[in-house]
């Protein structure tokens, strides 16, 4: 099995290691197909793929945990990540506030000749929660926060 060749734990051992609030449930339905084997014989990868997806997701709880933990570790371990306060070339708090204002709607407004109105979340269809705004109403990034550095 792939998991064994990668020296991965079984799915039940992995899930218990991450201290989920309850024991794994969905893969216990495999008991009838295991033919005398134990649930601990299920590899992490196929066992995770066989889980019932969490509502609103394509993935089961184990893969959601795996991906979330890996993303967090990747971000925290990247000294060049723009939000790292003590990283190389770190942005100031004021600069980060301005960066967070930036969005695609503002970029489209700034770089298009004829667009005067745009919904704030440009990739989401207009609705009561995402109304169309005049371009002047969409917050701009204040580049003066970088002036002292150049």
Automatic annotation (TrEMBL):
PROSITE patterns associated with the record: PEROXIDASE_3 (PS50292)
Gene3D superfamilies: Haem peroxidase domain superfamily, animal type
Keyword Coiled coil: no
Keywords: Oxidoreductase, Peroxidase
Protein's UniProt keywords contain tRNA processing: no
InterPro entries xrefs: Haem_peroxidase_animal, Haem_peroxidase_sf, Haem_peroxidase_sf_animal
The organism's place on the tree of life at top rank: Eukaryota
SUPFAM superfamilies xrefs: Heme-dependent peroxidases (SSF48113)
GO biological process: response to oxidative stress
Sample GO molecular function, one term: heme binding
Protein name, as recorded: Peroxidase
């Amino acid at each position: 099995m792939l998991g064994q060749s990668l020296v991965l734990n079984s799915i039940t051992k992995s899930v218990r290691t991450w201290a989920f609030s309850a024991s794994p449930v969905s893969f216990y339905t495999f008991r009838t197909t295991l033919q005398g084997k134990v649930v601990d014989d299920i590899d992490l990868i196929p066992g995770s793929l066989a889980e019932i997806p969490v509502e609103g997701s394509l993935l089961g709880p184990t893969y959601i945990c795996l991906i979330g933990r890996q993303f967090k570790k990747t971000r925290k371990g990247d000294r060049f990540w723009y939000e790292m306060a003590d990283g190389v070339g770190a942005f100031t708090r004021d600069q980060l506030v301005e960066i967070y204002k930036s969005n695609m709607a503002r970029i489209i407004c700034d770089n298009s000749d004829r667009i005067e109105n745009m919904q704030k979340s440009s990739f989401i269809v207009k609705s009561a929660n995402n109304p169309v705004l005049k371009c002047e109403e969409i917050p701009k990034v204040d580049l003066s926060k970088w002036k002292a550095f150049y």
